[in-house]
Protein 1
Amino acid sequence: MELENLTITSFHNGLLSREFSALEAIQVFFKSIESNDKKIDAYLNLLKDDAISQAEKIDILLAKNESVPLLAGVPLAIKDNILIEGKKTTAASRILENYIASYDATVIKKLRSAQAIFLGKTNLDEFAMGASTENSGFKITRNPYDLNRVPGGSSGGSAAAVTANMALAALGSDTGGSVRQPGAFCGVVGLKPTYGAVSRFGLIAMASSLDQIGPIAKTVEDAAILFKEIAGKDEFDSTGVNHNYSDELLASPINKIQKFKIGIPKEYFVGGIDKKVIEGVEQAMEKLKSLKLEFKEISLPHTKYAISCYYIIAPAEISANLARFEGIRYSSILEVEKKAKTLKDLYFKNRGFGFGEEVKRRIILGTFVLSRGYYDAYYAKAQKVRMLIRNDFVEAFKEVDVIISPTTPTSAFKIGEKTKDPLSMYLSDVFTCPINLAGLPAISIPVKKYKLGGNELPVGFQLIGKPFHEADILGIGQFYEKI
Ligand code: GLN
């Protein structure tokens, strides 16, 4: 089995033609994890026994010549803020170090019934706060293209696992860029669905009005297959939308796409972006021109306020969502418990020990912007700005069908390069967080197929679609990959 070019469809065909069994396939992936993850540290926890017994079940079905779904046996990595029943789920936080999930997230339930296999839980920035996976409470994940660099974040473990062939595809979550930015840094595809398209039930909440679960994969087609499987409203997420994606979901047809106008937002092509990134995106645009797509400059005038707006709204929601973690209800921190004298003291000690620096910073910021004296000046104002940012897109989408931009201003940066300067870390999301504020779907696609072991760092470009028009960006992406 050749892992490098394996996709979901070729995996499925391999199973059906008995080129390999599900068990053999899983074992190849665990071997790859064994030899690669010592250096990369993408996984927090492996689920080997469950994976093997699931693979055996699929092999029994195949032996009986029963039909199996497209995702049967497909080995996936799951970000460790998504619950899998009976398994440790930490969100890479010490405060949840011993937490065992008591139910499956809806996305897990769906993938389970499609017979996909979960290889393990991947590392992330604690509670998904960060852009480098350096904020994990447990370890730093490294970029498979250059071990001295970050894989991006917060879904860095998932992206690195896919890149290093330690999973065929993965799930991440994206609140301000956390699926797309690591996708771009690791040379893989990352899709953030429209807000409400995928149930957030069983995703440990960071900022509830921005969070979405999305696939990370080697090809746009694989991302589309996974998205189709996990999309849909359930009764447990009141913000879900039951959009009826048609059969076109996997890709809008070429005759539709060829009538598209692609918007180039002038505010996204400004100073401060790496030359290599600009060159990469220009190269992608050149390629897209061969599909006869028309390009048009547009303006998203409130872009410059997006980061400030995001870093008021996200911390506000974080401070509310993280109030529930006191180190008692979900799991206890025994070493701290022994030292605490009163209940209040235990709360202080648990939260003091259990949360990392970045998480504390955001809880404090969020509490501040929601406090009575400052609510109007910060939180209420940020909500108004959010509406302006959203309206920029509404106006732009009157003129164009899809918008193109770089995914990130730079390629993967060095480990430690930005940890002392939170603001420069926050700027990594300058092109991705406006899309969460507006609730739109967006995908990061590698400009080209990069080679592990080469001396080039991957660059990604971003396609942004109208709400629930995932098929448009997935369609363009799939044609792009074929050029
Ligand atoms: N880097 C951004 C942040 O730290 C986005 C994180 C995310 O999308 N989860 O908030």
Note: The chain has one domain: 3-259+401-482.
Protein 2
Amino acid sequence: MRQTFDVKGGPHIGRQNLPLLRDLLQADDLDGFYVPHEDEYQNEYLPAANERLAWVSGFTGSFGSAFVFSDRAVLFIDGRYTIQAADQTDKDLFERIAVPDPGPFGWLAQQDLKGSRIGYDPALMTPNDVDALFNAAEKAGATISPCRTNPIDRAWRDRPVQPLATVYPHALEFAGQSAEEKQQTIAQTLVADGLDAAVITSPASLAWLFNIRGGDVACSPLPLGRAVLRADASADLFLNPDKCDDDLRAHLGNKVTLLPETALEDRLGALKGQAVSLDPSLASAWFFQRLETAGAKIHRQLDPVMLPKARKNAAEIAGTAAAHRRDGVALTRFLHWLDTDAQSGEVTEIDAAIKLETFRDEVTGLRDLSFETISGAGPNGALPHYRVSSASNRLLERGSLYLVDSGGQYPDGTTDVTRTVPIGTPSAEMQHHYTLVLKGHIALDQVRFPEGTTGTHLDTLARHALWQAGLDYDHGTGHGVGVFLGVHEGPQRIAKGWNATPLQPGMIVSNEPGYYKEGAYGIRIENLQYVTPAEPIAGGDRDMLGFECLTFAPLARDLIDLNVLTSAERDWVDDYHQRVLAEIGPGVTGDVRAWLEQACAAL
Ligand code: ZN
Ligand code: ZN
């Protein structure tokens, strides 16, 4: 099994470790300490050695933070973790506050902490977060103080070792461009911007820039490391030497110097007087403080790898499409199982997640899941980021909806797909809501838009049908997706909040509108699609862009209310299902093939 459903952590951990941290804070002359969930690499998934919030509190959720003082400790969690946090932390030790209201810094600003010194680890926070902490502390009458070494790391006995998965070359046939060429191209942009070097702090960026992959964190083949690329296209790559072998050295060539991460501090010091780019949304405050101390001229700007990485080349698109065809076979076999065996009402969310994983495991090339499967039955489906555990596990009951959001990592591409299916007979209300979500999905699939359009401009299309019914959903509509890299990547995004990056050919985005009825059910339909030049439009006088779909798996025809669809939308569903049959049909046989033909028949 690639996923575990046991909840680790628990209140005994906080009881044991909180006093150890407090002892060190006292020794360091600190009255408080800020503990974010994020680690040095600002990744979604952390290695066990960096789960500092779990170490101090016992809370193992993927989002949260805490303030620890000598006489009180406060844990800030997202609403989806309310129950888990109550199970895992001792209420006598940790007060629990659900964010965003008011958030850790908003809370701090309202406290009376005159004369207190609050410590923080600059390696774990972006400069924006440090500014917010500073301002909040000032309002509370406190000061903040960066810690040279994290007191949790010093107090942590039996800390797991940092991951040491071998870093390996990413094949040119999947990358579509050699690492040397990529370094040359990015170096030219540094020259054009008047920069001497770029400090690359994001593991996903260095994976792309050097055509390498690793296995240091779950669900994403990232090599944890850093790099400095210079304007002459030479580079320093900082990786633990235990992760590097001769294959890797041969692949990197002689313009790349491999160095241990312990050499990073010195090498940054050597950038004195140079113009260096650093991305404040990706790099921690530690990098800024280090480069300022060294006397480098810091240019706060987008990591120069981000845009080229987001604009996939033809080989990356072809690989991603091929990965989706194979992944779609596993998903189709699972949807068939949901429509037959799982209609009994006796299957649980965990059974279903395991079943889906079993089908994916049979797909050629599967390296990992791209995230932990969201397997949400009935009211659990109404929690958009729900993670099933043995404590929350529910039956897929008849008369309910089941939502499943999942994906796989393959050497040629990364998938992310959501389907919502009825268990038993759906209500007319469920059908109505599903069809409104589908209308939004279709609108965003079909749109033509001029150059310069950003995801923010398009977001409304996916919500329009819901808005006219007085409904909405509280998450973004689309995120970027990597190629055998992170399932969530920028800089483009389709959401209400302003995003300044125009959608450009080759960018992959998800299209995932939803509707959530609290305490009852959740609905989401998610396909991945990529930006491509659109066919010329008769009578039009501008070049237009559009989307090409990557994800093929049947929609839930029993949830579609034909009275709510226009005839053009109905045609879209029929065309889409014809493509599903063409792309996935050859990969399935017997009962599944027969079922797929029915599932894809014209409405
Ligand atoms: Zn998804
Ligand atoms: Zn997604």
Note: The mean pLDDT is 96.
